[in-house]
Amino acid sequence: MQPELITFQTFEDPAMAQNLAGILTETGIEAALEENTTVYNLAQVNQPKQYFVKIKSGDFEKARQVLNDYESRFTDDVEPGYYLFDFTEAELMEIIAKPDEWSAFDYVLAKKLLAWRGVTVDEAAEKQFGEDRIKELKKPERTENTWIMFGYIFAICGGVLGFFIGWQLWKGQKTLPNGEQIYTYSPGDRQSGRHIFYLSIAGLLMAIIYKVLYLTDHPIG
């Protein structure tokens, strides 16, 4: 059975997504480009069209290195006014510590700027940064109690939104920079999500049954 392809990077610009997929494919990494217009997220319900570049989880580290090597070719041509030139050493180190929050270009440029200032980030330090970042990202995301409350309200009222909120809390996953996939929310929030999910199904069925019985007793016309 072939390993599943999972999202490596997400774009709103299809050209950028196609470019990344092409770079990875040229270096022997299997990459697929997918489009989705109905991504559901608790924090942002209405999202623009998105394009996903997907690869195997085991290729994540290799893909990041390929991307870093590709972007490093352009650091010599960066404009003097580029915003990273105004960063302090501490701010540049923040980029090295959290590369998943920055573009590959900013990451390799930050390393170069640190080197120019006499600060060397060796492989051992990068590895430690990576391990610390994974530990931090493995912590469950905090869910607003308001979302859980709304989830129960929509579930009881037979609303479809409660179904999606419950599923997201219960089964929602996130992908770590190393390709590992873990549940997004804490066990307690996931349990609430499971309750909301099944309660939504029950509420929806009850709403349908009520409507059918009402129409039976009050036929139209």
- The fraction of residues in strands falls at 5-15%
Question: What coarse outline follows from CA principal-axis ratios?
Answer: elongated
Ends distance:
58 Å
The strand line-up of the biggest sheet is: 1-3-2
Please give a quick description of this structure.
The protein is mostly helical and 221 residues long. It contains 8 helices and 5 strands.
Characterization of the model:
- This protein is mainly alpha-helical.
- The protein has eight helices and five strands, in the order βαββααααααββα.
- It has helices spanning 14-26, 60-72, 89-97, 104-116, 123-137, 145-156, 160-171, 187-217; strands at 5-11, 32-36, 50-56, 173-175, 181-183.
- The strands form two sheets. It has a three-stranded antiparallel beta sheet, with helices on one face. Strands 4-5 form a two-stranded antiparallel ribbon.
- Helix 6 (145-156) crosses helix 7.
- The mean pLDDT is 88.
